[in-house]
Amino acid sequence: MKFRTILVIALLLVAPYLGAVVSYSQACSDIAYWNKRFATVADSIHKSADKHYSRSGIFGPQTEFESTPRYIQRLMSGYHEVKKREFDAFLPWLGRMFTAYAQEVSMGSASFKLGTYDADRELMPLEITVLDTVKLQLKTKMAPSNAKILKEKQKQCKLRVFGAYGILDHPSPYRYTITGPDGRDIINERLPVFQQIRVIDTGSNIIPRKNRQEFWLESYGKQEAVFSAAKAKATLSKDHLFVRGSASGLMSNRMAGRSGYNRDTREYTLLKYDFTASDILQTYLRCKDVDYKADLPKHSGLSPEGRIIVQEHADSTNLYDFASGKNLGRVLKYKNKNIGGKSYVFDPFEYRIYIIGYEDQYYYDVLKKEAVPFSLPATESRANNSNTHAALWYHDSNTLLLLNLKTKDIVPVKLKDSVNPEQSLQIRAVDFSADDRLLAVLAGTGNYYQSYLLVYDMRNRNLLRMISITSGWRIAFSKDGQNILCTDDRSRNVNVIHLGIQPGELSR
Predict the structure, then answer these.
(1) Bridge partners of 321?
(2) Helix (H, G, I), strand (E, B) or coil at 309
(3) DSSP per position, 137-195
(4) Which of 487, 496, 495, 497 is nearest to 201 (CA)?
């Protein structure tokens, strides 16, 4: 009888921890299943769509009676079929994943240590350890009265850490609470950066690949890396390339085109990747003895349906057929390199290609074969995945311009610091979630050691999140829209930031 009593008491004491372990294991199992299921569903949708394209001939090769402008128009008009059969077809699955990944799981084996309270700034240093492996260094703002309770009654306070389903294969900590002796929450705050991956160089660009399961981290010339979302690991490339990439906007980036320069061989190549066919790689432009500083091509853009690539050259901007590699002609010639295209937006409604340059902006009319100048305060651009909107901005300005490609209306979004409204924020990077519901803007204060991540609802442009981070350079959404990759150009880290946005927060 005495043994049974001891056993019952022991079980009651360890039950909470067993529950945390069970829920943690279940979450791992759920995420592994959904990641596998995601790839299977995506592959099925791609193959079904490809069969339709083959039967309809919409993306067939150029005929001898078809002029090049009409051929380009035919390829661009295929956008509507691709959107219907791939992008729209996958949205219900993204919605299911969105709901699943938004769940929380309480994570056991968490403890905290206190530092010395900064009374002037009301900051309490905390070191939180989760599951004996993850250590988080925090400085939490709190009133002196709460700091006093923590200091004097630390052993009576209880810590709870919550994990969130997201980009990784297991729940990662993103929110924590510390409850005082009276049961009241002294702290209830987010842990915005819950994973850091160290790489050599994260300088210039992030290109999603394989339905946002992996990301290229393109460098400024040292060594690029491939970040695996499932493994939360960045693997360095064997090639020392100066690379620039662009991906198809529809269907979570199933295709990608890249321009690469090998410093050792002085060779420049234009490459094609098809991630639905086991990473088929095709090289269809190769230039030898290219001078790195004088005439290296840099920027490229891939049309949303993935059939046309626009590529900047030393003195011109050209179009290429992405299937055959055929040069479809020059869209812009320039003597001053500052006129060249830095980013591109394809308009599938009026068959235009917007060329956003360092100093000037043009749109190329495909049917008229002419480049028309237009004036906007922008040097960079980013189209959303379904290519209905484009974000235009001037680097280090505080105003983002949202261009509706259907109506051609332009809506300005002015960024303000919510802590200090008099202080304007300067835009550094922009990205859209895979389902186009969210818009993320990375902005700074002029001091590159302080950045903010702002997340907006695309339908009403309400600000949903404003997260402070130490510094940032480029951003990219995960496939479920719940996490953002942010490269840090100074610390050489890749930060994974969990947003924790619930479906009820979004406008209907």
Answers:
(1) 308
(2) strand
(3) EEEEE--HHHHHHHHHSGGG-EEEEEEE-SSSSS-EEEEEEEE-TTS-EEEEEE--EEE
(4) 487
- Range scoring the smallest mean pLDDT among 66-75, 173-182, 416-425: 416-425
User: Which residues on adjacent β-strands are paired with residue 414?
Assistant: 399
For 209, phi then psi, to 5°, come to: -145, 160
Q: What is the pLDDT of residues 115-146, one digit of tens each?
A: 888 888 888 888 887 766 566 677 788 888 88
For residues 262-282, b (16+ Cβ closer than 10 Å) or e, as one string? beeeeebbbbbbbbbeeeeee
Mean residue pLDDT of the chain comes to 77
**Does 384 map to a domain?**
no
128 within some domain: yes
β partners of residue 352: 347, 365
**Of the candidates 290, 302, 301, 225, the residue with the CA atom closest to the CA atom of residue 264:** 290
How crowded is the C-beta side of 147, counted as CA atoms within 13 Å? Answer: 18
Given a cut of 50, is residue 441 above it in pLDDT?
yes
Asked if residues 476 and 215 have their Cβ atoms less than 8 Å apart, the reply is: yes
Question: Which pLDDT belongs to residue 403?
Answer: 92
Residue 169's domain comprises 1-57+102-193
**pLDDT tens column, 266-289:** 777 777 887 776 666 676 666 666
* Confidence at residue 235, expressed as pLDDT on a 0 to 100 scale: 79
pLDDT digits (tens, 9 = 90+) for 344-385: 899 999 999 998 877 778 889 999 999 888 887 778 888 888
* Number of domain units in the chain: 1
* Percent of the residues in the chain that have a pLDDT greater than 90, as a whole number: 14
Rounded to two decimals, the pTM is 0.79
Determine whether 508 is exposed, middle or buried from the number of CB atoms within 10 Å of its CB (0-12, 13-18, 19+): exposed
CB atoms within 10 A of CB 33: 11
Give a yes or no: residue 121 inside a domain. Answer: yes
Q: How far apart are CA 167 and CA 263, in angstroms?
A: 34
Q: 278 vs 48, 166, 432, 456, CA distance in Å?
A: 17, 25, 26, 35
Q: Token match 């091509």: residue?
A: 297
3-state SS, residue 505:
helix
Distance CA 430, CA 432 (A): 7
Residue 129 lies in a domain: yes
Closest to 265 (Cα-Cα) out of 241, 230, 234: 241
In the chain the first and final C-alpha atoms are separated, in Å, by 60
The CA distance from 130 to 160, in Å, is 10
How confident is the model over 466-493, as a mean pLDDT?
78
